[in-house]
Amino acid sequence: MTALASTDLDADAGQSDDGPRGGRPVLVDTGLLDDIKRFGAADVSACFSCGTCTAICPLSDNDGTFPRRIIRYGQVGMKDALLSSEELWTCYQCASCSDSCPQQAEPSEYMAAARRYAIASYDKTRLARTMYTRPVIGTSIALLVAVFFAAFMYSSHGPRATTSLKLFSFIPLPLIHYTGIAVMVMILLAGSTGVIMMARGIARREDVHLSTVLGGPAAFAGTLAALWDAFGVESIGQRRYRTDCNEAQKDDESLYRRRWLAHALTVWGFLGLLTATILDYLLALIGVKKTGTPVPIWYPVRLLGTIAGIAMVYGVSILILNRLRKSNRAVKESKPSDWMFLVMLWVVGATGFLLELSLYLPHAPSWGYWVFLFHVSVAMELMLLLPFIKFAHAIYRPVALFFYALAKQKSASG
Ligand code: SF4
Ligand code: SF4
Fold this sequence. Notes:
The protein is mainly alpha-helical. 64% of the residues lie in helices and 2% in strands. The chain has 20 helices and two strands. It has helices spanning 9-12, 32-38, 52-56, 68-76, 79-83, 96-100, 107-122, 127-133, 135-154, 167-170, 173-206, 210-214, 217-236, 239-242, 246-250, 259-285, 300-325, 336-360, 367-384, 393-413, and strands at residues 2-5, 26-29. Strands 1-2 form a two-stranded antiparallel ribbon. It binds iron/sulfur cluster (2 copies). Residues 47-53, 68, 71, 101-103, 105, 107 line the site of one iron/sulfur cluster.
């Protein structure tokens, strides 16, 4: 239910009154907090805005309102402000705030649930909402998508050679190629709508215009710096996760099990595998190496794929083990959506290695064909579901961090 409030709730929520919406009436969604709870939040209505979480949060900046302001948005029903808040994505769920909250309001859980809620709100198909809030239906959909891809690929299968594994005779390469393109187009359509919605909301809130981004050499240089900061330093380099949030993990986790490292290896591994796949395709395109041709381990593209695969499988395995052991407060509560994403990533990585093993065994094992079919189907499924599951944070977080960097530049310069 929505209502029009004439008070400045942004100010009430802790934001200064001089922003672009200062003093203007805002629509209040009275069911917002209940809705966020459906995405896994604890009851933050107990929060009395004491600010302890802000004081303890390693990522809280100088204005002293994060993460308290995001909690307040939920409490007072400021849906638009919540969805256009880039700060939502700066949190890495270290759970230091939950440890110190005197009201046991679990702010860290709330932040994670608010991000799930945001992903579902940006998705107009409502599939993301179903995946997050109805785990049985969500898991069934995920299984059906995998079965669909497997049946689709198998329907065009060719012979299974027994002397050596000829994977692309079994499942034709053009079929995989064109299915992959169709999946990419679908991701682009579904994902870009959400990203545009989020970017428009944040830009309006932060008073960022086209001229701020591209209006002259200084603006353009600032944009490039913000892009580097968001994508290079934070998303790939994991700077704040690695440095600021690491402090919270130092005491109770060995280095090889630390969340930032496991997360970073997962990100780097995934990006490495993606790069190896694209390079392999390009090499085939220019006639250097046909896809699927056996090459030695030191062949650069294969080497990149192998190292990236090891990094990803290791990273995801640590993330899964940490969740199974509930090894720290941050992973005390795992939602079905957390498991679904991690399991899919792990299966793609592990079957990739199994496939590699089957290719290089002296006597070609016939199970290699089934592993191949399984691997391709789950990889396609993972990519197709990207905008609707936890994987979506890989798109939304860097975009939000870009605006965060731009907003910081703006406030520093003026
Ligand atoms: S520490 Fe707890 S009660 Fe205090 S502002 Fe944060 S969430 Fe609210
Ligand atoms: S979970 Fe960590 S990063 Fe996120 S708001 Fe709490 S203290 Fe800050």
